[in-house]
């Protein structure tokens, strides 16, 4: 079928389209209600279908004779380990760990927080939670204790699963002290913590609360899959919004399974038995969807890689992994390829490896900038696909649908809308804009299966954050345009969310931390262009009257504060003391203008500005530190 036919069918007749796709799954009870409204008036998919996500990821393949096929390859250059789990082995491990959780009282609907590095036990824990019909919330290992605490407070888990440490290139990150600190900070206390002890660090256990993973598994009875409804939640994944409090994106079971299964063929052109590698982390949505669920739903082999694109041990790491395991599709963030390009500009390390089985390279997490696109294409000779998506959607909104019809790429564009997503460019009044004109990228409702139906515990935040600005549409928070040929260009966020090394972060959250310093009267954190990480945050601070501080000392203190409160992953390293911040006469900081100055863009001074001379001062201050982009 051509893309046009498939796409039109998905938009004109979504119920028939998705009912057909749902037929590819082994439901316990096939859904008869394809699309219905929930109590909040939100469109929901497959409400009366009954399924179990872990069953669809694992047991079904064993039943269908794929038990001996490798489900997971764990490759860990930081520990020098390679391990393989067949579908049968993984099913058994998951059933036993589900037994551990059940013994701790975890039932359908209960929450389990998972704070783990990139080891197979993280995947086992996720699938074990799903097996019980419970709800997991994975927290990225790079987040500090206060971030973990906010998530524990909000998700109210019965159990937290962790490991004794994560391993970065040149350092160990003991997780258990961070977890203990987070539990002290949270008013909700989990009744049990299961700790996977790694040989590199031995975690101190809290008697009566903490359980050793291996000991608990040795005593556990395997647990069976629990039936859930299509609309029951599978997981909560917190993501940065514009305020200090992260949003708990809720994913349901039925729509998620149908959408991801469909995407593996339509977008990535994967067949059962193929090897798929998403070089991300289970703490991010890419890890949830394309390290764990989609490859396993599709009977593929997935890679759990505990390493970096560079320095583990060199910039040939990606090519080594692709060659060793016959990876067919590689998916990573553009920043990873920029890091490789920096260390191996000619792509010399590629020559050491046989990449004949690698068919396509996919990128997402941030816009694929044309220089990185061209470089990757040139050195690998493989098709390079940019695709745009968000934690909220769980799968790609736009991309080059390699399994339906491969389009001629246009550098800088995420190609075309994926079937199911009705992508429109709107002006501030919500009117669709003509081709070529830039506006807000919005998705006409209903959203296809797999997208969030609410924010955990806060439907109003979902409504006001996504549905209020443009009635009848989901507002993505990204700006962009569609060209005459129907190619979609995503140009960046229209809010205060920034993207640092493919990690989504809130400048508002950093501002709250910076503003808490006793010397700071007011501040703005903006994202400025960075040649490796895409963007980096910079703090502009105004001191309280009469305060005298050494600027370098203040910078070090604020950098330390953000690191302790959010994590090293925020990459908050620069602070400038300024005399004034540009504001409107009503007192609102003109952040967009600050970004434009730092990005070296031309800008028009709004008539509402209070004091235009503040702009020259800021430009000069940024320039002195070499922070104005020259092109
Ligand atoms: N646990 C603990 N700390 C972590 C961490 C984790 N899982 N991940 C990152 N960090 C820390 C790093 O150790 C570093 O700490 P430091 O300031 O003490 O050195 C800091 O967070 C910043 O890390 P990172 O952004 O990874 O920078 P880097 O310079 O070490 O590496 C890249 C640069 C480009 C190689 C790396 O950012 C990368 O691989 N990015 C791809 C990201 C990605 O896949 N995103 C998913 C989107 S699909
Ligand atoms: P996350 O929720 O962490 O996946 O981040 C989603 C945000 O990252 C989007 O709203 C975009 O701003 C940005 N993003 C992700 N992928 C792309 C892409 N391919 N092109 C442009 N922006 C992207």
From TrEMBL:
MF terms (GO), sorted A to Z: propionate-CoA ligase activity
Domain Acetyl-coenzyme A synthetase N-terminal: where? 3-56
Residue intervals of the AMP-dependent synthetase/ligase domain: 64-444
What is one term from the GO cellular component aspect held by the record?
intracellular organelle lumen
Question: What range(s) does the AMP-binding enzyme C-terminal domain occupy?
Answer: 509-588
What NCBIfam families would the database entry show?
PRK00174.1 (NF001208)
Family affiliation: Belongs to the ATP-dependent AMP-binding enzyme family.
**What is the name of the protein in this document?**
Propionyl-CoA synthetase
Query: Per the UniProt entry, what species is this protein from, by scientific name?
Result: Marinobacterium nitratireducens
């Amino acid at each position: 079928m051509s893309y046009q036919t498939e796409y039109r069918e998905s938009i004109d007749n979504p119920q028939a389209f998705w009912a057909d796709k749902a037929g590819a799954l082994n439901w316990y009870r096939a859904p008869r209600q394809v699309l219905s409204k929930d109590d909040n008036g939100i469109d929901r998919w497959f409400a009366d279908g009954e399924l179990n996500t872990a069953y669809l990821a694992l047991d079904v393949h064993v039943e269908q004779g794929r038990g001996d096929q490798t489900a997971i390859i764990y490759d860990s250059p930081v520990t020098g380990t390679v391990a393989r789990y067949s579908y049968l082995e993984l099913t058994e491990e998951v059933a036993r760990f589900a037994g551990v959780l059940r013994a701790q009282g975890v039932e359908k609907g209960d929450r389990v927080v998972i704070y783990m590095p990139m080891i197979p036990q993280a995947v086992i824990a996720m699938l074990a939670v799903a097996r019980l019909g419970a709800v997991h919330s994975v927290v990225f290992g790079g987040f500090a204790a206060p971030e973990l605490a906010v998530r524990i407070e909000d998700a109210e888990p019965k159990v937290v699963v962790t490991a004794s440490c994560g391993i970065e290139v040149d350092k160990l990150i003991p997780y258990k002290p961070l977890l203990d600190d987070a539990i002290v900070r949270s008013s909700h206390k989990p009744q049990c913590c299961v700790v996977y002890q790694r040989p590199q660090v031995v975690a101190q256990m809290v008697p009566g609360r903490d359980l050793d993973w291996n000991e608990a598994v040795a005593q556990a009875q395997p647990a069976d899959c629990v039936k859930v409804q299509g609309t029951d939640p599978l997981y909560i994944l917190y993501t940065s919004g514009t305020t200090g409090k992260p949003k708990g994106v809720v994913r349901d079971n039925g729509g998620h399974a149908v959408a991801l299964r469909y995407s593996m063929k339509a977008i990535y052109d994967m067949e059962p038995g193929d090897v798929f590698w998403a070089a991300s982390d289970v703490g991010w949505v890419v890890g949830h969807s394309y390290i764990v669920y989609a490859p396993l739903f599709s009977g593929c082999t997935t890679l759990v890689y505990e390493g970096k694109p560079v320095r583990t041990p060199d910039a040939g790491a990606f090519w080594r992994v692709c060659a060793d395991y016959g990876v067919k599709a590689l998916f990573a963030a553009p920043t990873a390829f920029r890091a490789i390009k920096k260390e191996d500009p000619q792509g010399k390390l590629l020559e050491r490896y046989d990449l004949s089985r690698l068919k396509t390279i996919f990128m997402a997490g941030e816009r694929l900038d044309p220089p990185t696109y061209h470089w990757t294409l040139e050195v690998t000779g493989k098709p390079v696909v940019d695709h745009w998506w968000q934690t909220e959607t769980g799968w790609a909104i736009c991309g080059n649908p390699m399994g339906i019809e491969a389009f001629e790429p246009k550098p800088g564009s995420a190609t075309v809308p994926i079937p199911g997503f009705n992508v429109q460019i709107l002006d501030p009044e919500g009117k669709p804009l003509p081709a070529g004109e830039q506006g807000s990228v919005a998705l006409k409702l209903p959203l296809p299966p797999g997208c969030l139906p609410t924010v955990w515990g806060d439907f109003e935040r979902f409504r006001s954050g996504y549905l209020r600005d443009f009635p009848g549409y989901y507002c993505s928070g990204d700006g962009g345009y569609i060209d005459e040929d129907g190619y979609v260009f995503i140009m960046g966020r229209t809010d205060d969310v920034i993207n640092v090394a493919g990690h989504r972060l809130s400048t508002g959250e950093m501002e709250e931390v910076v503003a808490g310093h006793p010397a700071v009267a007011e501040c703005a954190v903006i994202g400025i262009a960075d040649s490796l990480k895409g963007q980096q945050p910079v703090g502009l601070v105004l001191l309280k009257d009469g305060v005298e501080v050494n600027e370098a000392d203040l910078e070090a203190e604020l950098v330390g504060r953000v690191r302790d409160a959010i994590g090293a992953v925020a990459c908050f390293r620069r602070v400038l003391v300024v005399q004034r911040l540009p504001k409107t006469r009503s007192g609102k900081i003109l952040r967009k203008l600050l970004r434009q100055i730092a990005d070296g863009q031309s800008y028009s001074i709004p008539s509402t500005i209070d004091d235009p001379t503040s702009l020259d001062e800021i430009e000069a201050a940024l320039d002195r530190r070499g922070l104005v982009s020259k092109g």
